[in-house]
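ok new one. same drill as before - structure tokens go in, u give me an amino acid for every spot. 183 of them this time. try not to just spam alanines like last time pls lmao
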């Protein structure tokens, strides 16, 4: 043991940190709150020299329910946008190419342009809203709650996948810890 026994190390990545350090510059771990900042390494020849913020930094005092809401609504947003692009591109194909429409009708007789376009548009709007909710929740802004409740409720219409995300988001938004945070 060459190093002095009291040298402080980061509990997350085990790299040495200063005695009074609040933040590990190697991995972004907040030693006081126990949360990681979302960071991106700046790789240099000599190794990691620092971290930069990737997008909006996560507030470190968020309750667990809100930290989960950030990732759930972000995933919901991406999934909704993927479903929307699939439904809308299929709707456009069916509307513009009769032979494609005929083929689709032979596999799925009930599938019509309207059935795709309606939920497709809704899914697109809710996908964007869910991404905004995730961003607001990350910063602990009250808008995440009102916008989140609206988005999650409308998402219940998108059975089954959107509805599942909507239910999880509602559970997290109505969680006692979330309520306490926004009080
Ligand atoms: Zn670290």
């Amino acid at each position: 043991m060459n190093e002095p026994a009291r040298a402080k190390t980061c509990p997350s990545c085990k790299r040495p940190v200063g005695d009074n350090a609040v933040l590990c510059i190697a991995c972004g771990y907040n030693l006081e709150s126990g949360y990681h900042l979302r960071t991106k390494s700046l790789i240099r020849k000599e190794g990691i020299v620092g971290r930069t913020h990737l997008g909006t930094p996560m507030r470190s005092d968020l309750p667990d329910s809100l930290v989960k809401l950030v990732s759930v609504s972000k995933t919901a947003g991406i999934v909704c946008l993927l479903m929307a692009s699939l439904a809308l591109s299929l709707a456009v194909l069916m509307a513009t190419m009769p032979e494609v429409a005929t083929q689709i009708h032979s596999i799925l007789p009930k599938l019509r342009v309207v059935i795709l376009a309606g939920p497709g548009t809704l899914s697109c709007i809710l996908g964007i809203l869910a991404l905004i909710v995730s961003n607001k929740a990350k910063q602990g802004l009250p808008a995440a709650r009102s916008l989140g409740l609206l988005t999650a409720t409308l998402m219940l219409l998108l059975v089954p996948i959107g509805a599942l995300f909507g239910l999880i988001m509602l559970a997290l938004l109505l969680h006692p810890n979330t309520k306490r945070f926004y009080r």
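Helices lie at 64-96, 98-107, 113-138, 143-155, 161-173, 176-182. and btw The first helix runs from residue 64 to 96.
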